[in-house]
What we know:
two-stranded parallel ribbon; 4 helices
Amino acid sequence: MFVSTHQYDADTNPTEPFYPGTGGVVEPSDPAYDYIINLPLKPGSGSTEFRQAVMSVMARMQNFKPDLVLVSAGFDSHKDDDIGDLELIDEDYWFIANELRKIQPRVVSVLEGGYLGSDSEPGSLVRASLAHLKGLMQSEQ
């Protein structure tokens, strides 16, 4: 099963919603529906929208019963990252890692995206990565 949360807004720019331009909702009539869950988030979406999207598919992910969870962790969705237009905060990365551990404690996570961005120290990439790692290691925040 493939699950992805990502910035996507086909309403504003249908020919190029956000790089790479794919990732709309997979409809139940699509043969890939049982194996692909896209959770597109409009630019400006923050913690509430992100967490609601994740929680809306937790039962499907649990019912799949994965032997292992692989995470391609993108941190360019952080509100302080200069690339994306999502508004996630450090605690959201803890949240998603912790929720994934509830499905399957065997989680492998690799860095996909995120940039050091502004001059603030520590940068959002460092803070969000640390929160994500804590979520993988702890059962409670």
